Amino acid sequence: MAVYTDISEAELRKFLTTYDVGELTSYKGIAEGVENSNFLLHTSKSAYILTLYEKRVDRDDLPFFLGLMEHLARKGMSCPLPVHNSEGQALGVLAGRPAALITFLEGMWPRRPNANHCSEVGKVIAQMHLAGQDFSLTRKNALSVGNWRPLWELSATRANEVEADLDTEIEADLALLEAGWPTGLPSGVIHADAFPDNVFFLGEQFSGLIDFYFACNDFLVYDVAILLNAWCFEKDGSFNVTKGMALLAGYQSVRPLSAEEAEALPMLAHGSALRFFLTRLHDWLVVSDGAMVVKKDPMEYLRYVRFHRNVVSATEYGLRRMDDIT
Amino acid sequence: MAVYTDISEAELRKFLTTYDVGELTSYKGIAEGVENSNFLLHTSKSAYILTLYEKRVDRDDLPFFLGLMEHLARKGMSCPLPVHNSEGQALGVLAGRPAALITFLEGMWPRRPNANHCSEVGKVIAQMHLAGQDFSLTRKNALSVGNWRPLWELSATRANEVEADLDTEIEADLALLEAGWPTGLPSGVIHADAFPDNVFFLGEQFSGLIDFYFACNDFLVYDVAILLNAWCFEKDGSFNVTKGMALLAGYQSVRPLSAEEAEALPMLAHGSALRFFLTRLHDWLVVSDGAMVVKKDPMEYLRYVRFHRNVVSATEYGLRRMDDIT
Which end of chain A has fewer beta carbons closer than 10 Å to its terminal beta carbon, N or C? Predict the structure, then answer.
């Protein structure tokens, strides 16, 4: 959802004078993006997205996010391109907030992803991993294994309101993941939030990847683990291995996983499910209703956590043996 | 506000097959409209608004609303034109709701209306009143003087939570308005909700009138009374008579008010301020937070009610004597 901040035409026109985008003809607040205010602009030239960065986004991270979009777009990836103003800047100020104008990508995100969508997103994220290798900026993952315990502690005392004995269960998960979290896997820039609503299609064809506001440096295969959670579970909580196979094969057709990465996948998928469970639980229990955060049911991800806890090998996700693939 | 119902691309594509609008390339839920879910669509041909009618809108009223837009657009007014499907219908069904596709109007609503905007909206509403004279359907005003007491009774017992002795004050207003409400004034189709967010401009030029979902048959000058409330008060609650003059002169340049209409204006302005106060009070006190109604501060309109209560003549709004005008 979104649009925390409304803007007047006068201030928007003034902002746009420094951009070579033609005459403004309309702007509508759009119900997308959880962290920021987004507007769809029409001008005499084209369509654009205007984003005002609200307080949940750290301003120091904006050069990384905008620079990454630009880097990836220059490498030929279909992602939004930040428009530079007459001073060469991608970042301006509007309504007292950091603001960026980016190109509008046509396309629609799949409300009901199928195996083809999964294959496409696997390929696209692998392409992003390769294209990001020579990006010069870095950003630490602020929601990695070391951050989960402090996050958990904000909700822990009330967790049993959600389900009996949940605290014991999550404590055990945390201990397991903290002790066993892999090291030394291939790293680079990951998207870290490539959920279906951030991946656009025109028909069955991928058309654009958006919303890089969780992007960071981490194990590349951790992004694959996030994709498995975001794309391959059905509404009833079951894991669809056909989708998992399509996603993993799509990824490996561009960037094959090493044996170490494949071996780490169950633990990473378990961890990434816990990460989304913990942020949702926190929003659910702790963040006030007035904060306009969209609260998503944390139980969905608790079911995924429980699934991954019992996975022994990545073949259970549909990963085919390396020598079948390469 | 906006987007209660999300829709999948598959169901949207299916819906659009019966419309000659080209290939769908994107759709975004937009943060506009209080009662319905609205999407901005891009197709290979043009841009459109898709509206899903939610439960606060009576389905039986939809032919009136859509027919009116069509009637006004055919008369040359700049308002959205409902697109007909291959069966000649302006109304379809999508996601289990009545749904209509209408043309997208470029333009922006003025966040800070000036006297020129007021003059323009006065003219446009007068044009609408003339253009609506031969519209064949009718719709009773469901929020006129006879409806205020029942509405008030839903909030009355809790009104003093908002301000001490508010109940006595509102009871006196109701008695006064019910006893003195005019009869026999020129009637016709009125917009009844022409607030700034429903009137678009490109620069200083009017570009479009939208959102006819409160339109009904009532005294034409009652619409003028609504405009005075919606456009001519400043944020501090003061009435800006320069704006009032511009608005009334704009209106009268297209449709002069009769002496009886001018005389009735203070009572109608008082009543219309009370009508918006009562609906806002009801949403504030009675409607649950989960209903996703945007709650607007009722006190703003209470200040207007108090202002109008002391107005003796329409000249206080900036109405010039008839013989100065005509």
Answer: C
Residues of B in contact with A108 (CB under 8 A): 9, 24, 26-27
Q: Do A106 and B42 touch (CB under 8 A)?
A: yes
Pick from B132, B131, B115, B128: which is nearest to B249 by CA?
B115
Dump pLDDT digits (tens) for B87-142: 999 999 999 999 999 999 999 999 999 999 999 999 999 999 999 999 999 999 99
Query: What gap in Å lies between CA A266 and CA A308, rounded to an integer?
Result: 6
Contact between B212 and B65 under an 8 Å Cβ cutoff? The reply is: yes
H helices of A58-99, in order, are 62-74
Task: Report the candidate in B305, B304, B308, B234 with the shortest Cα–Cα distance to residue B264.
Answer: B308
Q: What is the pTM of this model?
A: 0.88
As a whole number of angstroms, the distance between CA A215 and CA A199 comes to 14
CB contact under 8 Å between A30 and B27, yes or no, is no
Q: Which CATH number fits domain A9-103: 3.40.50.2300, 3.30.200.20, 3.40.50.720, 3.30.565.10?
A: 3.30.200.20
Q: Which CATH architecture best describes the domain A115-325?
A: Alpha-Beta Complex (3.90)
Q: Do B27 and A108 touch (CB under 8 A)?
A: yes
- Name the token pair of B64: 């009136």
Nearest CA to B49 out of B10, B96, B90 is that of B90
Q: Domain residue spans in chain A? A: 9-103, 115-325
Per DSSP, the three-state class of A190 is strand
